C-alpha cells in the first residue's frame, strides 16, 4: 500500500487516535495495519472474511473500533495481560491489539478454519509473537482444565449475546479478570439484565462504559464489562 492510500480519507487523524489509545509508535502501527488491510483484501477475494472492503471503513469500523477498548481500559496498553478474543473472525480486535500492544499475550479463538487460517497467516506475515491462534469452540475450551483461570481479559466483538459469552467462557477467566464486550447501546439494553441474572450468584456484576461514537459518524458503541468474580 502506498503512502497516499494509507491516508486516503479515513475521516480522522489516525496518528492522534493511536496516541489517545496508548500506542507508543503510531507510525509503526499504521504501517503494520496497512499491510493487514492488503492481506485482508487479497484473502477476501476467495474467503469472504468481511463485508468491509474499502479503506475508510477499514480504519473506522475495524481498526478504530478494535482499539477503543484501550481508551476505556488503559491497562490494556501498559500491563502484561493475557487476553482471549472469542469468535475472532478475520482477527478483529485480536490482530490490531496484538500489533498495537506487545505487552499483551493474545489468544484468538474461532471455530471456522478459514478465519483462523487467515489470522495465522497474518500473524506470521507481521511477526506477531504475542498472538496464538486456535481453531476451537469456546464452550469446549471452557470445560478443559488447562484453560481454567487462564485469562485476565476475555473479549468478543459482534458475536453472540453477553449471556452466551459468559456461559461459554467464565471458567477461563481469572478471579480478578474481566469480560469486556464490544456492543451497541441497543444491544446492552437487550442483554444486560439476562447476563446479570445468570452471573450474580458467582459475585459477578456488570457495568457499561460511557457510550462513544466511531470516527466519521460510523455508529455508536459501548463496552459491557464484568467486575468482581469470586470463583467457580
Summarize the structure.
This protein has 232 residues and is an alpha/beta fold. It contains 11 helices and 8 strands. The protein has a single domain, classed as Rossmann fold (3-Layer(aba) Sandwich).
What characteristics describe this protein?
22% strand, 11 helices, 44% helix, Rossmann fold, single chain, alpha/beta, 8-stranded mixed sheet, 232 residues
What does this protein look like?
This protein is an alpha/beta fold and 232 residues long. The protein has a single domain (3-227), classed as Vaccinia Virus protein VP39 (Rossmann fold, 3-Layer(aba) Sandwich). 44% of the residues lie in helices and 22% in strands. The chain is built from 11 helices and 8 strands. Strands 1, 2, 3, 4, 5, 6, 7 and 8 form an 8-stranded mixed beta sheet that branches. Helix 2 crosses helix 3, helix 3 (26-47) packs antiparallel against helix 8 and helix 10 packs across helix 11. The protein starts with a helix and ends in a 5-residue tail after the last strand.
Q: How are the elements arranged and paired?
A:
Elements: H1 3-6, H2 14-20, H3 26-47, H4 55-67, H5 69-72, H6 75-78, E1 81-86, H7 94-100, E2 104-110, H8 113-126, E3 131-135, H9 138-141, E4 151-157, H10 162-169, E5 173-183, H11 185-199, E6 205-208, E7 212-213, E8 220-227
Parallel strand pairs: 1-2, 1-4, 2-3, 4-5
Antiparallel strand pairs: 5-8, 6-8, 7-8
Helix pairs in contact: 2-3, 3-8, 10-11
Amino acid at each position: 500500500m502506498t503512502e497516499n492510500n494509507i491516508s486516503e480519507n479515513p475521516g480522522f487523524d489516525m496518528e492522534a487516535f493511536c496516541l489517545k489509545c496508548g500506542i507508543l509508535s503510531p507510525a509503526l502501527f499504521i504501517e503494520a495495519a496497512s499491510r493487514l488491510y492488503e492481506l485482508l483484501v487479497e484473502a477476501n477475494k476467495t474467503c469472504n472474511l468481511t463485508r468491509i472492503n474499502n479503506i475508510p471503513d477499514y480504519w473506522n469500523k475495524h481498526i478504530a473500533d478494535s482499539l477503543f477498548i484501550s481508551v476505556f481500559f488503559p491497562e490494556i496498553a501498559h500491563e502484561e495481560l493475557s487476553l482471549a478474543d472469542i469468535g475472532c473472525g478475520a482477527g478483529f480486535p485480536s490482530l490490531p491489539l496484538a500489533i498495537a500492544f506487545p505487552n499483551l499475550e493474545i489468544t484468538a479463538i474461532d471455530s471456522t478454519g478459514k478465519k483462523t487460517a487467515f489470522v495465522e497467516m497474518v500473524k506470521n506475515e507481521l511477526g506477531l509473537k504475542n498472538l496464538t491462534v486456535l481453531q476451537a469452540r469456546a464452550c469446549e475450551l471452557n470445560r478443559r482444565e488447562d484453560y481454567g483461570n487462564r485469562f485476565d481479559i476475555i473479549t468478543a466483538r459482534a458475536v453472540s449475546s453477553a449471556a452466551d459469552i459468559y456461559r461459554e467462557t467464565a471458567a477461563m477467566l481469572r478471579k480478578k479478570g474481566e469480560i469486556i464486550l464490544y456492543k451497541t447501546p441497543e444491544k446492552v439494553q437487550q442483554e444486560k439484565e439476562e447476563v446479570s441474572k445468570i452471573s450474580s450468584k458467582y459475585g459477578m456484576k456488570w457495568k457499561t462504559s460511557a457510550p462513544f461514537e466511531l470516527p466519521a459518524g460510523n455508529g455508536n458503541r459501548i463496552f459491557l464489562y464484568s467486575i468482581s468474580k469470586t470463583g467457580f
